[in-house]
Amino acid sequence: MRLHQIRVEFDAEQDRLLMLISTSDGAEVRAWLTRRYVNLLWPLLLKLAEEVSPRIAGQANQDARKALLGMEHVEATARADFSKPYERVPRSMPLGEAPILMTKIQTSRDPRGLPVVTMNPSQGQGVSLTLDKVLLHSICRLLQTSVAKSDWGLDMKLSADDLLHTDDTAPRVLN
Asked: Where are the domains of the chain?
């Protein structure tokens, strides 16, 4: 199955994020992401974003890593299409119509070396996403936008300006 679209939206009544994942063959998976789950997923996504970029992975200076991550985020999300609304059409629901509550996260690599994030409920089948740079950063942006609509108080920074100004009391290294 090839990924077609992803939508992430905050549901205030459930106090959860609803992630909708549709595939090119007409299937859809619906998943609930709790605050706790997103709080575990976010640093993992940032780590993967650093690992998939040779220019970030090879950088020893933490401020430089943050700046490069922010630049790559801007570059990758510029290549994604956020203007197209999520297609609300009848689809098959291989995991059921009700959203499944995700509780577990696993990472691995596909044969090409791309990161794979597998999100699973406590029991039963979940979903695996193979993340190229654009998809990885796009999911980060979708999570940021949705969490901003909640009052969860999570620190979901990823832009170069946000990352570089997280702690003004930290000592700076000047060259």
From this structure: 3-101+131-154
pTM: 0.84
> How many beta carbons lie within 10 A of that of residue 162, not counting itself?
15
**Dist. CA 77–CA 15, nearest whole Å:** 27
DSSP code per residue over the chain: --EEEEEEEEETTTTEEEEEEEETTSBEEEEEE-HHHHHHHHHHHHHHHHHT-HHHHT---HHHHHHHHHHHHHHHHHTS--SSPP-----B-TT-SSPEE--EEEEEE-TTS-EEEEEE-SSS--EEEE--HHHHHHHHHHHHHHHHTS--------SHHHHHTS-TTSPPP--
State pLDDT tens for residues 130-142: 999 999 999 999 9
Distances from the Cα of 60 to the Cαs of 48, 55, 162, in angstroms?
16, 10, 20
pLDDT in tens, 35-60: 999 999 999 999 999 888 888 877 78
Residue 169 pLDDT? 45
Which of 107, 117, 132, 119 lies closest to 17 in space, CA to CA? 119
